Amino acid sequence: MASLLLLLLSVFARAAASAAFLVGEDADELKALRVSIANYAPVKAVLAGSLTIPCHITYLRPLPTSSTAGRRAVLGAPRVKWTFISEGQESEILVARGQKVKVSEGYRYRVSLPFYPASPTDATLVLSELRSNDSGIYRCDVQHGIEDGHDLVEVTVKGTQSRSLARPATETWTGSQACGTTGSWTQKTCTMCTATLRTSTVILTPKSAVSSPYCIRTTDASDQHPPGWP
C-alpha cells in the first residue's frame, strides 16, 4: 500500500511540474489579446516636432460574451493606458476607455489618441511640441475584461531650440553686402547685420549693432558671425 501511494505521488508531482513548465513557456499563447508597437527600434524625434507611436491590439480568440459567460461578459471598448518611463520613474500620460479620456497635466493639449475609440484596436499615440525631457520609454497597456497586455518602445528627442522661439523677432546674420568704404567704416568692418522683424527689416552698422536690441551675439555653434563684428 505504501509503495502504491509513493507511486501515485510521484506521478502527480511529474504532472504538476509539466503543467507548470507549459504555463511558463506558453503563457503568451494562452492570452486572448496581444499588444504590439510597430517600431521596436529606438525612435528618434526632433525637438519641438511631433511623434507618432503606433500601438495595435490583436484579439487571438473571441472574448467572453453575455451568451457564453453571463456576468463575466466583456462589454465595451478596451481600457488603454500610456505611461512614460525615465530613469526608473513612471509617469502616467493618459488613460482612456471608450469616450472617456483622462490626460495628465504635463501632457495636456500635447497628446491624443487619433483613432481610438472609433477603431478600438488602434491605440496609436500622438505627442506634439516635443521637449528634451520627452526622451525615454513609452509603454502601451491595454486591458479588456480579465485579459491584458502591453508593449513598449524607447524614444530619443534630439535637436536644439532656436533662439527665435524665445524672442518675438527673428534675428539673422548676413554676409558682406557691397563692401567698400561706408562712411567712416573701412572695408574690413563694413559687413552689416540684418534683423528681420515681423513688419520691417532694419539694417545696422557694426557699431550700432553692439547696442541694438535686434542683434544678439550668442555662443551657439550654429550661429555664423560675419567678420568685423564683435
TrEMBL record:
This is Ig-like domain-containing protein. The lineage of its organism: Eukaryota, Metazoa, Chordata, Craniata, Vertebrata. PROSITE patterns: IG_LIKE. It holds the Pfam family V-set. Residues 1-19 form the signal peptide. It comes from Sphenodon punctatus. One of its GO terms (biological process) is glial cell differentiation. The keyword Cytoplasm does not apply. The keyword Phosphoprotein does not apply. One of its GO terms (molecular function) is hyaluronic acid binding. InterPro entries: Hyaluronan_bind_Proteoglycan, Ig-like_dom, Ig-like_dom_sf, Ig-like_fold, Ig_sub, Ig_V-set. SUPFAM superfamilies: Immunoglobulin (SSF48726). One of its GO terms (cellular component) is perineuronal net.
